Amino acid sequence: MKKGLSSNQSINCILIKFYKLFPGSFGGLDLHGRNRSVHWTHLATSVSAGDDTITVEEDTDWEEGDEIMVTATTYEPWHTETFKILSVTDARTFVLNATFEYTHVG
């Protein structure tokens, strides 16, 4: 039986890749939270450092206050960034609580 964390908030846009962390070892990651129609998706357009709005490829049911993670599109894992959604423009476009520090290719 799997045990998980439950929360009133969810983390969306998660795509995690592990490269050569532990040679010969494999593991998994289960994250649990509020059930969502879309748990992760791709950026529909690229974002540049200084941008504070994203558009994703799929319609989502994400809401103000949800936390999202935009993973690195380079080989630099520290380019992964986390945000909270400040406002929802439509089911694919969101204004974030901060600006991007790095460019992310959509």
Topology:
Elements lengths: L10 E2 L40 E3 L11 E4 L10 E10 L2 E4 L10
Q: Care to give the gist of this entry?
A:
The chain is an all-beta fold and 106 residues long.
Report on the structure:
- The protein has 106 residues and is mainly β.
- The chain has one domain.
- Helices cover 0% and strands 22% of the residues.
- It contains no helices and five strands.
- A five-stranded mixed sheet has the order 1-3-4-5-2, with no helix packed on it.
- The protein starts with 10 loop residues before the first strand and ends in a 10-residue tail after the last strand.
Stretches where pLDDT is under 50 for at least 5 consecutive residues are 1-25
Q: What level of helicity do the residues show?
A: under 10%
Radius of gyration based on Cα positions: 15 Å
Q: Which class of secondary structure composition applies to the elements?
A: mainly beta
Largest sheet: 5 strands, mixed
| Tally of DSSP β-strands | 5
Main sheet strand line-up: 1-3-4-5-2
Q: What best-fitting shape do the alpha-carbon axes yield?
A: globular
Q: Give the end-to-end Cα distance, rounded to a whole number of Å.
A: 37 Å
Number of helices: 0
* Assembly status: single chain
